[in-house]
Amino acid sequence: MSHQSVFLSGLFSVITLLGFTCGGAAEKAAVPSDQAQVFTLSYQNAPADNPLKGFVPYQGAYTFPHSLEWFYLPLKDLQTDFSTFNWAPLDSRLNAIAGRGHQAIFRIYLDYPNHPYGVPDFLAAVPKNSYTNFENGSKATSYSPDYRNADLQRAVLNFIAALGARYDSDPRVGFITAGLLGFWGEWHTYPHSTWMAPAAFMNQVLDAYEKAFPHLQILAREPKSGVNMNRPRLGFHDDSFAYTTLAPTTWHFWPNITAAGLQDLWKTRPIGGEVRPEVQGCMWDDQPCTPAGQDFDLCVTTTHATWMMNHRVFTDTLAATQLQRATAGAQSLGYSLHVSQATLESPRTAHALHGTVTIENRGVAPFYYPWTVQMAAMDNAGHLSTWPMTWDLRTVLPGSPITWTFTIPNHGITTGTYTLLIGVPNPMAGGHALKFANTTQDQLRSDWLSLGTFTMNP
Q1: Global confidence as pTM
Q2: Which residues are within 8 A (CB) of 150 and not within 5 positions of it... i.e. 6 or more apart?
Q3: Over the stretch 174-218, which tens digit does the pLDDT of each residue have?
Q4: Fewest CB within a 10 Å sphere: which of 65, 321, 354, 393?
Q5: Number of H helices and number of E strands within the chain?
């Protein structure tokens, strides 16, 4: 089965089981309180390597817990003509990351200071500006292409369309950043501001991403004047996190977001980025080196960030207290889903299973993809009967618990004692399953939360 087929079947299909639907929030069946068995569950921190959140290293094998890996690629490695592409370098990286059970975040660039020029060779005639900013010269001469050039614009828009056609539904990809324009693909050419792409082309680029990626979440660097940045799947990445994130400076990340009226975007669109390299090495010390007003925890709760590149936490040798703080920092990012209660109506073999699950989000952001939630019953021999639900994890916002109802006719369970379970598998084979913030997560079966035991009566 193709990556696209696996992803679509795991994420976006409406599940029908044996001719009936397992209900979500709209399910009509009720659970009479006088007949329901009630399971009350206890909280504990979810693991730091829960999928699609937490700290992110550059691509590679590391021991600090994580579920995402990051990389850059120049456009010239992938595009050989206006409509001709070589996907092997991208697939090779995605396969290596998936082989470690992780999903990827990546950015394609044209201009990366102090790196070889990223514009494809077939666009060699496009005018370019050389520059020596950002310690250039030790590795390569840097150039900024003419973003007003019609051939370059055509190539970029064609590339985005082809990229989306191939990777929008690929479960190896967690998020991508818009990239392509500006230094590091960060949509600026400071201090050479006149070199930056015009607003009209930036809008075309975002239009192309929106059309090419109906499912995948895209992240841009910051709001831009004259550019429509309020798009359904467009989040943002703060690449100087905990350094130039907070007010009062107006050009800092969050003041820029709020000035654009996008302060609530986190409810449906992710915030990511990179902890500023200058503070990565001392952030977990007894006296953190972050500037005044740029406290990491405050930055997380203010921006509702889900993931952050923080490479030095993976490469530095951390003392026990530093490791404890870093792990807590990773856990604080993004969602933290806790099942507080479940109920099950007195089960009988000839009747449908009826019950409820109450879930709350103790994190700072939602889960951003419609991964399939599964209910299951496990017998004493460890055999599972599973039923996919139509519940939407994206709707579980911090501070707003949801009670979902399930009804499973013709469940096929015989008399005996069972454990009721709930789980959220990763649509990528070998990927980290979503784990709940509960003491009974993985208690009886890996990747499943045990809700309680019940007896199936005749």
Answers
A1: 0.90
A2: none
A3: 999 999 999 999 999 999 999 999 999 999 999 999 999 999 999
A4: 321
A5: 9, 20
